[in-house]
Design goal:
Helix content: 25-40%
Strand content: 5-15%
Number of domains: 1
Largest sheet: 2 strands, antiparallel
Oligomer: single chain
Distance between the termini: 26 Å
Number of helices: 2
Strand order of the largest sheet: 1-2
Shape: globular
């Protein structure tokens, strides 16, 4: 996903406009307390206070990931 989906223009534009993307490597980075992983990749949607809103586990194509992200955008 990091190489194939996240860089795609529609996904990248939405992420840049509405999200703060944080990429952690489970082998090299410390995973914050309360944010485990169940498979790679695992995505968390977190609000501005740090409250977990949702978790998605596993990879999908760009179209499906874009639909997933849009459900949390309030315009």
């Amino acid at each position: 996903m990091e190489q194939d989906v996240l860089p795609q223009k529609d996904v990248a534009d939405l992420l840049k406009k509405h999200y703060v993307l944080v990429v952690l490597d489970i082998d090299d980075d410390m995973i914050p307390e309360g944010f485990g992983y169940f498979a790679v990749p695992t995505f968390y949607v977190v609000d501005s206070t740090g409250k977990k809103i949702d978790r998605a586990v596993g990879g999908v194509d760009a179209k499906e990931f874009l639909q997933y992200l849009k459900q949390f955008v309030k315009e």
